[in-house]
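Morning, I've got a small favour to ask if you have a moment. I've been staring at a protein lately and its backbone has me curious. You're getting the sequence in one-letter code plus the fold written as tokens. I've dropped the whole record in just underneath, so have a look:
=====
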Amino acid sequence: MDILDWLNTPAFELLGNPVPYSDLFGNICALATVVLALRRNILSWPVQILGSILLLSASISAGLGGNASRQVVIIVAAVWGWTQWRKSRESAGEVIVRWASWKERLLLIAALLIGTGVFGFVLALGGWSWNPYPDAYIFIGSLVAMYAQGRAIVEFWFVWLAVDLVGIPLAVAGGLVFSGAVYLIFLVMVVLGFLDWSKRSRQTISAPHLGATDINREPGD
């Protein structure tokens, strides 16, 4: 048995559905990614890459073409986000978060809506997904969220929330029950992440004379 065969063998069953090792370990990495992102820890990006490689295997096994494609793009986007956060830490000593401008918000919404329509059509045309438009929505939403995360924009938490609300029923319907359960945990973590980043952004705005780096720095950063 090679590594790919082992990754897609069931680790246990949840509600009568097998949970492969790839889904188990991939989602553990995904949870760790959110925790690290909340802390603005640059390690969130390599952990996300590892998790996406594992979830790519799980998605292919479950026949979720859009979700599998999503993992490939997430890996590429994570490399870009990693470089952005490294630059921020090198220039300011940490990752400085901010609210998006209205122009940026409109661009994020437009990318989500148009991207979902176009990619959903491609999935449906090619027969690569049994549920093309929700699958496409998760794919594009994840890409938009990661772009906003790489830019350290507070609104990226809203995008992840929107993705989770569709991802829960889609994962369960596709047989990835464990992934659906993890999405529920994500909902709580996303709210916590938004509150934390929102507070930091307000601190930066309300006391500019102290400097963004001094305001946002945590003990031990």
Residues 87 and 185 are 31 Å apart (CA to CA).
